[in-house]
Amino acid sequence: MNLKKIRNERGLSIRSLSELSGVPVRTIEDLEKRGDGRVSTLIKLSDALNVTLDELCR
After folding, report:
1. Which of 2, 30, 43, 51 could form a disulfide with 55 if both were Cys (CB 3.0 to 4.6 A apart)?
2. Exposure string (b/e) for 15-53, b if CB count within 10 Å is 16 or more?
3. Does the residue 19 lie in any domain?
């Protein structure tokens, strides 16, 4: 999963991504560590980061 890479490229902290996406900070931290999550959560994050789900998950 490219979540941490994309977030860092955009200069976003986990907290700011949480505010943009509506996904809790803890969930984002867990996703960056584990690399898997619910599709609904990943869609919120991809929308907030303005990337496709494919770009986020590959």
Report:
1. 51
2. eebbebbebeeebbeebeeeeebeeebbebbbebbebee
3. yes
